[in-house]
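lol forgot to send this yesterday, sorry. struct tokens for the thing we talked abt
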């Protein structure tokens, strides 16, 4: 994750003022992109998640992740009640 922790975050921080806030969702989004969506040359075109055996199905991985998160939140909410 050198590029994630190195130049990418630093270059974004200069242009994205919200990165100065601790509760910003931008860094979480960058982590999701880095680990579940973006393929890595060092992993032979796989994502870190795929290298760990986690596969995100579908053409639009962002949409799949959002739908899965919504379903998980709804199930957790029902269990809490």
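and heres what i got for the seq, position by position
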């Amino acid at each position: 994750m050198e590029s994630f922790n190195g130049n990418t975050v630093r270059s974004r921080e200069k242009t994205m003022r919200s990165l100065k806030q601790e509760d910003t969702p931008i860094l979480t989004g960058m982590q999701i992109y880095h680990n579940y969506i973006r393929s890595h040359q060092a992993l032979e075109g796989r994502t870190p998640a795929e290298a760990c055996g986690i596969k995100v199905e579908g053409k639009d991985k962002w949409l799949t992740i959002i739908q899965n998160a919504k379903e998980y939140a709804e199930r957790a909410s029902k269990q809490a009640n």
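The chain has a mean pLDDT of 82. anyway ping me if u want another try
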